[in-house]
Amino acid sequence: MPVGRVGWRTRFEGTGGASVSDLKLNRKQLFAAGAGLALAGYGISGCTVERPLDRSAAGDIVEPKIDGDLLIFNWAQYMDPALKKEFGEKYGVKVSEVNFDNLEAMVTKLRAGGKYDLIFPSSEYVKRLKNEQLIRQFDRAEVPNAATLSPYYDSPWYDPNSEFSLPYAYYTTGIAWRTDQVTGMTESWNDMSNESAFGRIFMLDDFQEGIGQANLINGFYLNTEKSDELEVSKETLLEQKKGLRGFSTNTAQNLVSGAAAITQAWNGDVVNARNQVDDPSMFAYETCKEGVPVGTDSMAIPITAKSPGTALLFMNWMLKPENAFRNVMWNGYPQPVAGGREAFAKLVKDDPSIDVNLDELSNTSMEFRLENPDARREWTRLWTEVKA
Amino acid sequence: MNASRFWNWFVYPGALWIALLFAVPLFLVLALSFGHVDDLGRGVYGFQLTNYADVFNATYVPVLLRSVGYALITVILCLGIGYPAAYFIARFGGKYRYALVAALVIPFFVNYLVRTYAWVALLADEGLINNAIVDLGLTQAPIQMINTPFAVIGGLVYGYIIFMILPLYVSIERMDPSIVEAGKDLYGSPFQTFIHVTLPATQPGILAGSVLVFLPTVGDFVSAQLLGGPDTYMVGNLIQDQFFAASDWPFGSALTVVMMLFLAVWMVLYLRRATRGEAEVL
Amino acid sequence: MEQSEAIRIDGITKKFGDFVAVDNIDLEVSSGEFFSLLGPSGCGKTTMLRMLAGFEVPTSGSIVLNGEPVENVPPHKRNVNMVFQSYALFDHLDVQDNIAFGLKRRKVAKEEIGRRVGDALELVDLSTRATARPNELSGGQRQRVALARALVNKPQVLLLDEPLGALDLKLRRQMQVELKAIQREVGITFVYVTHDQEEALSMSDRIAVMSAGRVIQCASPEEVYEHPSEEFVAGFIGISNLLQGKVESRGQVRVGDVCLPVPDLDDSYSVGDSVQIAVRPEKVAVDEIDKPAYKIVADMFTVQGEIESMVYLGVGNQLTLRLSNGGRLVALEQATYRVQSHDQWKIGQPVKVGWHPEHCMVLK
Q1: Does any CB of chain C come closer than 8 Å to the CB of residue A18?
Q2: Which of A35, A360, C106, C139 has most Cβ atoms within 10 angstroms of its Cβ?
Q3: How far, CA to CA in Å, does A208 sit from each of A233, B113, B225, C312?
Q4: What is the pTM of this model?
Q5: How confident is the model at residue C340 (pLDDT cuts 50, 70, 90)?
Q6: Cross-sheet strand order for the sheet of A95-100
Q7: Which residue in A23, A49, A126, A130 has the most chain B C-beta atoms within 10 A of its own C-beta, making it the best mutation to test that interface?
């Protein structure tokens, strides 16, 4: 026995009976196997990756009543656990939470039939899920605490009449920087190539945020679908890339660890970063004059929910002013409801630029929306090419 | 039914398991790579080659070359670091051998992602290493270590070196120590003996370790994502982004298939080498 | 053949921690000699060999090879070569590359390597397997490759560490003859380590019998066999019958109530000394008690006894005899044309036992 030889082959040879060579396919069998594969391929051609879901509940309106325990499917670190606990105690149900780390993964699990009761999609995803009949309709009048929501959410573009979703948090995209290290900030997206921070700039690892700010620099519509404009923005991005240290959505960590001198940022992450250091004034945040992308994360009830009624009650619970106040103090993201607005204003009183001007919300051209699948594909390919 | 026929039945549960959990998903990936995305952003099976045409877009060539380059450098570093470690443990570990091997393996009980995050904390500008060298006065300002190709390769080496050390250890431990003495007895200096005797004798371990490190490294995305900069994008990141950011599963599948074919070539070369097991390295 | 000195070992001691593996050994080996280190496992013979090869550095003492002290010379700079017990062939090289290994390291010219490897292959009768891999060879062939790989370097001394230990008995016998023939042909000094006394006796010019790190006796095979210096040697080499006794006179030793005649003792013995008498089993003759003497001859010392047990060996019988004075002896009876088969003896049968007094070895 040669020393140290990987012995798998010898072992197989020793088994007797059906040896490896018996399993070898002859040409005819290979052909048959190939034909079988092709046939199977033809059989599933045109099918989507996921199996069809039972959508029979799609037409029904969700009633606000306790109909079981609650399973929440949310971003991590996005909800004050005390609020879940108190809800459970008040209504006598068990409240559990599982997390996703990107929306695409969340949708994939829903399509696969995951039985979650409450999800937190962005505006664009609310529209996609609605079109796909993956979320359930409810009567907004049955959610009394929704009355104090900002008027914009009475009938947002992604959910006319607000029948499928209620806002959970909203945010702006701007630029955060280290006040002790960076000079010459101009409240412009051109600050993404500020020379004093060259090599220490981060861009959000999000194709819409990345391409969007380039569009704004070039004076294009945030969600432009014009190929020639996108081509120009791609050049802008490649130019910006030279000064980048990376693409990342770990904004708070990049700021706190000192890796980032400048970073494209969601305002809530800046609040988080400021909470983690002794001197919050070392991080500043600006929104840019070319345009401020805004976004909303909403609450919605999947078609597969086992306790849709409990979920609706929980939505109302989260919009209750004192609960909204506590939740905002906990996660750092503003909530467009009574209590939530005040809490956020208190959080950012040292740096009002972090706050969201509600007028910005009504400018629907400043929300990311790519409803044309071909445009979406063009954007994602462009982004991949920039990162490659 | 004779005894060996009876025992042959035991192959079926395992074969079924592999078929269900490996072959079927693989087939679905293959099928989806010929598909497209529908208006709702869902992957749909079909028969079109556009995804493959896109894979061979010149933009992605640097990504592939970079991945292979990082993987090769990682293999070389793992070999350079792992061989002395494995050699020391196997030859001089004595009764502590198993304890030493366990000590090497235990860190790998921790999830790769978590370990990579630990590296972030270590290498950051205001991380442990930079704080130490600044405090010691070695440099004025912190040195940028994270978000560089070095950090990515360092993360890969750290992440996969155990797959190099274990086969090397087995190979060295199985080696008859008297052949090293024979090499010296036959006028080989310690260095010559290492080159002409020890290295060839442990070649199966070197090959196995190199393949075991190369294959996962070339497709890795965690290290580049957490430790990399703007120019460390690897094939693994490219594929991962298609599934989780771009929601273009068919394109991601096509990339996966091409990647697997590429790796399969290496694997076949290795298996042929390992089964022949004869050719001299040097 | 010139009888110069190939190896001189002076006061060599090797300790591993507290354990003394080799204890103050002095030895000289002549050039061209077939010299064996014989002893049970753990006696230090392999350690001694490894010190000669350079794999172990002596704790104290000196080793001189062909006039040069080498205790601190690393193995690759010593002009000795070793045949390992496991052969230690390089599996990644074919037979001829294995044999050429040492020559290549010494940067011998290519044509010369080819020629010498060819000669070595011929010497060990493996010319047809030059391109085979070691794992394609039989045990005996591997052994011969190991031998050729060492001999091709024309070392001053060839060290062999139980080289036949892994072979089956028949092949061993054959290889013993071949090895001896090769040694005569090449004329190189062989230092041969073995625990097999038959092997040592049949091949060696001289044997050093070792025990517990020391050389007990160093002499020719005949001397070691016929005149062992100590009980250990007598017992280790061949089976010996040992009888406890006291010196009665210059030519007699009393064992129990019987006085045995022995060869004349020298002045180192005095009356009353405790000694042992050893008689080789093959020197003991046994006859049926009530029949005329058949194997016992006139000048033998005889004593009565009975057959206690019997083992059939094919070439003869091994008889265990209980003597009338209570002692016990083993006798080895060759099956010759005169002694027919084993069934002539019965357990408990009374017999006459005899041996020549000069075959008694007196040991202190």
Answers
A1: no
A2: A360
A3: 12, 26, 18, 97
A4: 0.81
A5: low
A6: A95-100, A70-75, A118-119
A7: A49
Domains of chain A: 56-165+300-319 (3.40.190.10), 171-294+368-387 (3.40.190.10)
Residues from chain C contacting residue A3 (CB–CB below 8 Å): 91
Distance, first Cα to last Cα, chain A: 48
Say whether B182 and C106 touch across the interface (CB within 8 A).
no
* CB spacing of B171 vs A47 below 8 angstroms: no
Enumerate the H helices of chain B as residue ranges.
Answer: 3-8, 11-18, 24-32, 50-55, 61-92, 97-105, 112-123, 128-135, 149-174, 177-185, 190-193, 199-201, 203-218, 222-227, 235-244, 249-276
Chain A residues near residue B27 by CB distance under 8 angstroms: 37, 40
What tens digit of pLDDT does each residue of B52-94 get? 988 888 888 899 999 999 999 999 999 999 999 999 999 998 8
C-alpha torsion C240→C246→C247→C251, nearest 10: -50
| Residue environment code for C308-346, b if the CB has 16+ CB neighbours within 10 A, otherwise e | eebeeeeebbbbbbbbeeebebbbbbeeeeeeeebeebe
Tell me the per-residue pLDDT of C139-193, one tens digit each, with 9 for 90 and over: 899 999 999 999 999 999 999 999 998 888 888 888 899 899 999 999 999 999 9
Instruction: Write out the DSSP string of C54-111.
Output: TSS--SEEEEEETTEE-TTS-GGGSSEEEE-TT----TTS-HHHHHHHHHHHTT--HH
pLDDT computed for residue B270 by the predictor: 83
What are the residues whose beta carbons fall under 8 Å from the beta carbon of A32, sequence distance 6 or more? none
Provide the CATH number for the domain around residue B128: 1.10.3720.10
Q: CATH top-level class for C5-233?
A: alpha beta
A1 touches chain C (CB under 8 A): yes
Q: What are the residue boundaries of the structural domains of chain C, listed by start?
A: 5-233, 284-356
Tell me the CA distances in angstroms from A365 to A353, C149, C254, C319, C364, one per residue in order: 20, 85, 126, 114, 115
Task: Sort residue C123 into left (φ over 0), alpha (ψ -120 to 50) or beta.
Answer: alpha
Task: Look at residue A32 and tell me whether its pLDDT is greater than 80.
Answer: no
Residue at B208 is within a domain:
yes
Question: Which of B243, A135, B106 is CA-nearest to residue B98?
Answer: B106
Type of residue found at B219: G
Residue C84 to residue B178, Cβ atoms within 8 A: yes
Instruction: Round to whole Å and give the CA distance between A38 and A224.
Output: 40
Q: Tell me the average pLDDT of chain B.
A: 89
Q: Which residues of A195-211 are buried (b: 16+ CB within 10 A; e: fewer)?
A: eebeebbbbbbbbbbbb
CATH code for the part of the protein at C284-356: 2.40.50.100
Please give the residue range of the domain that contains residue B235: 59-276
- Residue B166 neighbours by CB distance under 10 Å: 20
Contacts 24+ apart (CB under 8 A), A79-85: A79/A318, A79/A327, A79/A330, A79/A331, A80/A326, A80/A327, A80/A330, A80/A331, A82/A326, A83/A317, A83/A318, A83/A323, A83/A326, A83/A327
**A46·B46 Cβ contact <8 A:** yes
The complex scores an ipTM of 0.83
Tokens of C250: 């210059």
The end-to-end CA distance of chain C, in Å, is 37
A354 backbone dihedrals φ, ψ, rounded to 5°: -75, -25
Q: In 3D, which of C155, C94, A2, C132 has the Cα closest to residue B186?
A: C155
Q: pLDDT tens, A364-382? A: 788 898 888 889 889 999 9
- By DSSP bridging, strand A70-75 and strand A95-100 are parallel
Q: What amino acid is encoded at B121 in this protein? A: A
Say if the Cβ atoms of B186 and C93 lie within 8 Å. Answer: no
